[in-house]
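Summary: Need help interpreting a holo structure output

Steps to reproduce:
1. Submit the protein chain below together with the SMILES for zinc ion.
2. Request a joint structure prediction with the ligand placed.
3. Inspect the structure token block that comes back.

Expected: a single structure record containing both the chain and the bound molecule.
Actual: see attached output.

Input attached:
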Amino acid sequence: MMPRAFPTSGWIEVICGCMFSGKTEELLRRCNRARYAKLQVALFKPSVDVRYAVDDVVSHSDNRLPCIPVAHAPDILKHCGDARVVGIDEAQFFGPSLVDVANRLADDGRQVIIAGLDQDFRGVPFEPIPDLLAVAEYVTKTLAVCMVCGAPANRSQRLVHRESRVLIGASDTYEARCRAHWDPESFDSQQEELPLRTE
Ligand SMILES: [Zn+2]
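--- attached output ---
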């Protein structure tokens, strides 16, 4: 067995939930908390996600930290250097290879904090989050507020009709919905009822 890079054991934390549930906000909070303690932090996001900024992880409320955009999960191993804490945002875009990467980082003695969508817009578990939940030491499910009724929401309602599983967007393409108000088949009618909004 290879010696660990750090003397103490590492672990994996997963923060998952629907759109607008504060996943990125929570990831940034934990990364900042480590920075206050002078721990070296490396933050990654998939290079496909360039919604707000190419080199920052940015929450919907515009908190941000510099990050390294990478195309594939194994690239994280190449770029994490001596970081004791490794943050990974939008994990659902990295695919199944992220599970092995996260395990290797934690085995190396690092704190690995992963944020991502747990379900796609059809309500299907979004890999690799289900497998990461199984191997993680800590799991946090974040809930949003249903934009129709105000109840706790754990589903992402897509407002525009696209077949593709991945559709990068924010408030103009998705809403958080509770079970009662989430309907994956209702794009077109919803689109007429709900005007596209910008923040
Ligand atoms: Zn509702």
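--- end attachment ---

Reviewer comment: Confidence is low (pLDDT under 50) at residues 189-199. The chain is about 25% helix and 25% strand.
Status: needs-info
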